[in-house]
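Example 375, ligand nicotinamide-adenine-dinucleotide.
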Amino acid sequence: MHEVRIGIIGGGLMGREIAAGFARWCALTDVTVRPVLTAVADLNPAALNWFEGIPSCTLRTTDYHELINHPNVDVVYAAVPHNLHEQVYCDTLAAGKDLLAEKPFGLDLAAARNILEAVRRSGRFVRCSSEMPFFPGAQRAVEYARSGALGRVLEVVSGFHHSSDLDPHKAANWKRLSAVCGAGGVLNDLGMHACHVPLRLGWRPERVFAQLQKGYPRRPDGRGGQAECDTWDNALLHCWTQIGGEAVPLRMEMKRLAPGATNTWFLEILGTDGGVRFSTAEPKTLWQFERQKEQWWKRTELGFGTPFKVVTGGIFEPGFPDVIQQMWAAYLMERAGQLEGRFGCATPEEAVASHEIFAAALQSHSTGSVVAVAG
Ligand SMILES: NC(=O)c1ccc[n+]([C@@H]2O[C@H](COP(=O)([O-])OP(=O)(O)OC[C@H]3O[C@@H](n4cnc5c(N)ncnc54)[C@H](O)[C@@H]3O)[C@@H](O)[C@H]2O)c1
């Protein structure tokens, strides 16, 4: 097994999740590459303490420059607030390291394009994090869409919902501040998740009409005071795309105010002959539509049919930590030239395309008009 040494910048929610995914790498049975966490950088020394439990992670630093310049790091995973993406990603590439970048790949479209230029200049292997399409149900939906069974595609819905902003007492964090999260707000936060599969299927939105909504303007700041929260919380993007030479409605939904939803990613594709639905709210369930003399929605209980094989029993159900691990397997195997037709991580070009959609959506909302998507 070939070892790849990983350094994590940002040891918060996602930094720890990824480190935990590496720690159970032995679950994977058909990969030739193994990530070894060698370094972590976080401004907050308390965040670094958790990494003391990982023996291979010998460099724990508050200065990410030390990590990117360390010879014991081959690949950097960066999970920092959005206003730092451009600087941290470009510095990582300039230091000669490969990168799995967190979404949204920069604060806005200009930042994403600058990062893409840096990627091309550097020649490094770079992908953008988006793990939900690695759910077995999502993989089956993609295969189904590619099979031709849909007939003429009538409409597509792709979205990501959660509801944690419904609670007015929840303390604000940087994701609720435009200066740090970006003017896109929820578009930056959840948008890549909704864009990844449509973009991968070649269903790029050409025009968009967007409806954006804000949440509570103030929240507790966690220190006894109040923080101003100015980001968009919900976004509905009504788009036109081209599929099979026809204009097709494509709706993307990103919500932090979705009653009842925790972390729900979903995809529905309807055609004249067939259809498919998958939601992580029912992680084992795939719905497929069939039209013959009668019409049916067939419900299949899926097992653990992940792109990369695992020791986990085939009848068991997958979850978030599993798809994080699958995404990393895809990143490392593609980097090693061994993806072999399996679903790959979001590319830098797809990440920029998602920002082109967000920029058009922001313009559409502010002008109340339909806006052409650049690119
Ligand atoms: N793929 C997903 O499902 C998913 C889920 C959540 C968040 N994210 C993305 O991951 C990224 C991080 O989000 P999070 O939820 O982990 O945030 P977080 O706030 O939990 O963690 C961010 C960490 O970065 C550290 N940090 C800030 N400035 C730094 C600097 N200059 N150098 C080093 N460390 C620094 C903070 O101290 C913090 O520990 C964001 O881009 C976010 O959009 C992705």
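Summary: The mean pLDDT is 97.
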